[in-house]
Amino acid sequence: MGKRAKTDPEGGMKAILKLPDGKIELPILVGSENERAIDITQLRSETGYITYDNGYGNTGSCRSEITYIDGEQGILRYRGYPIEELAEKSRFVEVAWLLISGELPTKPQLQSFSELLTRNAALHEGLRHHFEGFPPDAHPMAMLSAMINACSCYHPELLEMEDESHVLEGSAKLLSKVRTIAAFSYRKSIGRPIIHPHPKLSYTRNFLHMMFSQPFELYEAPDVVDRALTLLLTLHADHEQNCSTSTVRMVGSSGANLFASTAAGVCALWGPLHGGANLAVVNMLRKINESGIPLKEFIEKVKTDPNLRLMGFGHRVYKNYDPRAQILKKTADRLLNELGIQNPLLNIAKEIEGMVLEDDYFIERKLFPNVDFYSGIILSALNIPANMFTVIFAIGRMPGWIANWYEQFCQKAKIVRPRQIYTGYATRHYIPLDQR
Ligand code: CMC
Q1: Are 194 and 128 in contact (CB under 8 A)?
Q2: Catalytic site positions
Q3: What is the mean pLDDT of residues 279-301?
Q4: How far is 41 from 36, CA to CA, in rounded Å?
Q5: What is the structure's pLDDT at 2?
Q6: Pocket of ligand 1, candidates 367, 372, 390, 397: which has the most ligand atoms within 8 Å of its Cβ, to mutate?
Q7: Which of 130, 253, 346, 401 has a 20 to 30 A CA-CA distance from 329?
Q8: Which residue's CA is the nearest one to ligand 1's atom 39?
Q9: pLDDT by residue (tens digit) across 344-361?
């Protein structure tokens, strides 16, 4: 267990809030990395005021021991371990255990967790038949969310968690099945027969096998492909209170089960401002490439057209280089080189990055490449089709969603229920239909 946030540190530090009709003293909380928060939990009951924070950019919604980000310094740590070390030395399954349980696994723990994943890779036959109900062009994200939710019908024993071993079993089921569901969704979308999981393959190799093997021909992923996918999943594994994780916590706060809560997380991730950005980046780079628009002109358009954004740039928390983007840029270079792929999109991406990092518009707004800027290029090199990009993000983020759901469950957290500033009509009275 890490250090917890302290209330009333150093003899009870307080903030004083002056209001038009009085004042209130509010406790200051200090996190284990010295980040500070004003505790307003008694504000409304004592003063009648609420706070307004559109988009929650200044709101700490929970106390968490899972992931630490310093957006000014470009720091990301899972359970205290720097992302750079985990990216270099760890494997995705190990990182999943770390996030969920709080510690790196011992050898026997890792082995039994891996075995649990293997045992839970298959889908219940009834669940598999659900795929037949989707139209051929169904989006894999829609199928993923629906199928994760449907898992709750087939595993009623996991609807109420009792202890840690129960949670580990639920986690293993979800982590393993999300990969199978994702691969089956892809096979369905291309009209090919599904490929069942292989008990002898590692987490990522098994996924690639279910994606790309044929009934008559086994696909064996080259090491470089396996390594790149493992790295991508590891880098996406958690990112504190982002939109989808907050969604998982919010849904879970009502007492909703792990499957329902993470299915909601998939839906939140789908949007182009969040996980859908990896696809949006590649679409943007393709359009630039096909249209031949000079990059300078494109960047000027981004700066002046309020409906246009440079996808893969900017972040609510990072006001410096996203450390994940830094790792992925190097990976993209190395991977394309090792696979002998010439992708003009990588050159365009690098050129854009070079130009905007010297452009006042981006400098003033502290807009740097984020995790999605280079990930789509890497996924394309792995032959992952574009409509699966965000699905891969979801597989990667699953440990973080589970860890946050579990942490909140252990904290017996309150139901999440923000307030609002009502700006609609004052009372008005019903007008019968024939008088309107
Ligand atoms: N291109 C151009 N201008 C931008 C961009 C961008 N990508 N991002 C922010 N800005 C401008 C924005 O127009 C605003 O300018 P002004 O102050 O003149 O109105 C200023 O920067 C602040 O933007 P904001 O929308 O208030 O910032 P935010 O913290 O609410 O949004 C963001 C963060 C990630 C949604 C946003 O930067 C964005 O839309 N980026 C592109 C989409 C993207 O790459 N998303 C992936 C995020 S990282 C992974 C993940 O979360 O899944």
Answers
A1: yes
A2: 315, 372
A3: 96
A4: 15
A5: 42
A6: 367
A7: 401
A8: 273
A9: 999 999 999 999 999 999
Asked if residue 134 lies in contact with residue 143, where contact means CB atoms within 8 angstroms, the answer is yes
d(CA 372, ligand 1 centre) in Å = 13
Residue 210 and residue 180 in contact, taking contact as beta carbons nearer than 8 Å: yes
Q: For helices 107-119 and 164-189, what crossing angle results, to 10°?
A: 50
pLDDT at 1: 38
Query: Could you report the per-residue pLDDT of 14-41, keeping only the tens digit for each?
Result: 999 999 999 999 999 999 999 999 999 9
The pair phi, psi for residue 53, each rounded to 5°, is: -145, 80
CA atoms within 13 A on the CB side of 64: 30
Helix (H) or strand (E) holding 18: strand 14-19
pLDDT surpassing 50 at residue 339 = yes
CA angle 60, 61, 63 (to 5 degrees): 80
DSSP class of residue 369 equals B
% of residues, the chain, pLDDT over 70 = 97
Counting ligand 1 atoms within 8 A of each CB, the residue from 284, 317, 370, 373 with the most, and so the one to mutate, is: 370
153 touches ligand 1 (CB under 6 Å)? no
Quote the strand ranges of 95-179, DSSP E: none
**Measured from the CB, is residue 316 less than 6 Å from ligand 1?**
yes
